[in-house]
Amino acid sequence: MKITMAHGSGGQETAALIEQVFASRFQNPVLAKMEDAAVVPGAHRLALTTDSFVVTPLFFPGGDIGRLSVCGTVNDLLMSGATPKYLTCGFILEEGAELSELERIAASMADTAREAGVSVVAGDTKVVEGKGGVYINTAGVGFLPADRELGADHCREGDVLLLSGTLGDHHAAILSARMGIENEIRSDCAPLCEGVAALFEAGVQVKAMRDVTRGGLATVLNEWAQQSGHGIRLEEEAVPVSKEVEAFCGILGLDPLTMGNEGKFVVAVAKQDEDRALAALKAARYCAHASVIGRVEGPGEAGVWMNTRLGGTRRVPALYGEGLPRIC
Amino acid sequence: MTDLITAIRRYDGPPVQFMEVCGTHTAAIAKNGIRSLLPETIRLVSGPGCPVCVTVTAYLDRLIALSKEPDTVVVSFGDLLRVPGSKGSLSDGKAEGGRVQMVYSPMEVLELARKNPDQTFVFAAVGFETTAPVYALLLKRAKEQGIENIRLLTSLKTMPPAIDWVCRQGQVDGFLAPGHVSVVTGSRLFEPLAERYRLPFAVAGFSGESILAALYGLTKSTGKGTVLNLYPSVVTRDGNRQAWEAVKECFVPCDAAWRGIGIIKDSGLKLKAEYERFDAGSGGLMEDREANQACRCAQVLVGRLEPAGCPLFGKACTPTTPQGACMVSTEGSCYHAFLSAEGGISR
Question: What is the ipTM of this complex?
Fold first, then answer.
């Protein structure tokens, strides 16, 4: 069955769609009330965020738009130091979307929400004319302990940077799927709850965290350098990239440092916590390939530099433009 | 590896200027931080081997015009989208309603054309010896499969005449020869040039090690007309004859205009008469007029001027606001110079 304009009318078909596809999968006491707004217990300090998801294809090796829409928002909350609690989701469906695909997407969202320990407590559906596309917006709320303050401006000379795993997997998986290339690359799309919790449980003094999404590590670190007013130095050899992704990038002229990920984060910790942080990450789900990739240098020239494998030095620029593949 | 770096740092000859011709080498040199490993007496300059950097404005203007014609879609590699023509880029044209589709392989056009028989798909066929065989294959497939709604707007170029032109300017003491081109043409391609100008050519792969080895080889061969092949696992003396035969089946040499250089005799490829029906009007696109008159891409491309010597560099012209082609492509020399100059390469 396909989605029609009637599914977005606000009438019987809409109610049936919501019940059949969403409510049955996201079920929880708050959502079950089906009121105009969800009413939930709160906390003294809240983290709030929102993100929209427009990926094609809707299903790709390692994930789908549903999983992505939960991970994206959950991970953004986590990076502020918050524990993600509630999500809302808004669906914009194009006429002609397959109902069975929508059900798969909703099921994937429900599974991922369960894994991340969040409840989907409110939602909305609209249908527009189009070619069967599906777009999702999620917003999230997380609870933040009273004494937790993270941010790039907390970075100081000597702080150590850790990356939770290999770069470029999501970007390469999506491109491969779009280009019809068969390979072993899978999206890394995952909620990072365990890795983040492991750091705090180990008593690591976390200065700043960012999930490494669009724009890639290079862009995140350049922003950190600007915000903190410090230089950042990376060791090329320490930055993990899988063999498959490296080969893929070699062919298309892409740089893993500017490619997007959906299940990786970079964290700055105090020097004395380096070993503890690395051990905690490595033991956590989705962080087995965690690595110490560099350090924060003295204040002054804010920028990112890399010691190359050959022993040379180069500047690591933020992503400019669209990260276009080269042509020869 | 350390030995090689030590040896190259020990170079005590006169100051030399080597040119990397291939844009992929330009990118690899930046990525590996090669310049930070060289003594001051060895200078690297980027040559005219980045395909989008040498595409003239008349070609881009024509592409933009085609994208606005009814039932026409321009299909292009990503690099070309932001290169400024005389009045804006293909990307600007798209924002104004032009139909432009980005692909990663020319072969994707076959599928597009089959699925949309009412539209004509014009592929922006830029490139060198490396890419030409793919266009030849595309045309052969289109012919075999009876797909008639594909056109090429060609701006294909061949390397030797351009290198010959650079040699005549007398600014360069040796060449890091284009590795990808050599795979197709063979290292033999450079022998006549090496002999004529008594200049060394080193064919290298794209790893940092391979590039360093080639540069070291060049320092040992200055003044000699030799061709060194440091990429023997992939490049042979004769190249890939089959690929080149395919090119000769579809294309014949023609004069071509190079951005910043001008027209070089027999340095281009155009469709043969039997394939002319696939041509989207590629003839006569020779005019090259920079939108910004102060742009010095022309001199930068041939090693006469450092990117920083251009009055626009880093001011009006940055990767987000490129005024000339060298600032657009990730293979462009200004692009790399801008990114490293921002913070100094050897900090």
Answer: 0.76
